[in-house]
Amino acid sequence: MKPSVVLIGADKGGVGKTTVARAMLDYLLARNTLTRAFDTEFPRGALQRFHPRETALVDLTATADQMKIVDTLETAEVKVSIIDLRAGGFTTALQALKNMGFLDAVTSGEFNFLVFHVLGPSLSSLDEIEQIAPYVQNAHYYLVKNHVNDTTFFEWDPQVHRKYFEKVNTAGEITIPKLDEMAYEQVELAGEPFSSYVANLDAEGEPANHSFVLRGYVRTWMNKIAVEFDRAELLGAVAPRPVKAARFGR
Hints:
Elements (H helix, E strand, L loop, with lengths): L3 E6 L7 H14 L4 E5 L6 H5 L4 E3 L5 H8 L9 E5 L5 H10 L2 H6 L4 E8 L3 H10 L7 E7 L11 H8 L6 E5 L4 H10 L3 H5 L13 H20 L2 H5 L12
InterPro entries: P-loop_NTPase (IPR027417)
Protein name: CobQ/CobB/MinD/ParA nucleotide binding domain-containing protein
Organism: Methylocystis bryophila
């Protein structure tokens, strides 16, 4: 299988990039797609806290850490790599990938490259689209609206759409719905994957005593995200092979 790199980022902070990365890890693992992840919130990473077994903490501005990711894409047994970018590091990471020749390798068909741009509610996110357009010409480029923090987004009107989208081809738009505040808070306190919370397990994989109600809210939320990822054909983009879809059960 051709190695795939999934970049999740935004130059604006507080838009929920790590929540998207966590949901994606659960989605792919539930579909028997082994995935490794890199948390660039160095030196303390949020993604690594929730997915310590799959996640390595890296400083993406350091050449040695860039090598840990890119130089191992073809030799690693796990062929899907998710990179959760720190706030403000989106354009910098894309420029680094360009400078090292990774984007040229994507163009020549050596790697699959998926970019998930998590938008904020302001026009500054639209400005980001213009800035990164030159880097994503040969990527699967997705726009993500994350409502998990009760964010309200403006709607694209035709004039705005033409101004900001004429230079970039999007693979699709993904909406992350809002999760019940208490449910989200309890998963954060538990410090474990969403899927573990739903399965009533603790961070060590041992039986827990999580609320039936709150587990139900998280399960429903995860299934809504799975519908979004299915609609965007995420699985086919990162692992193009026949796979039976799954839903998160009780």
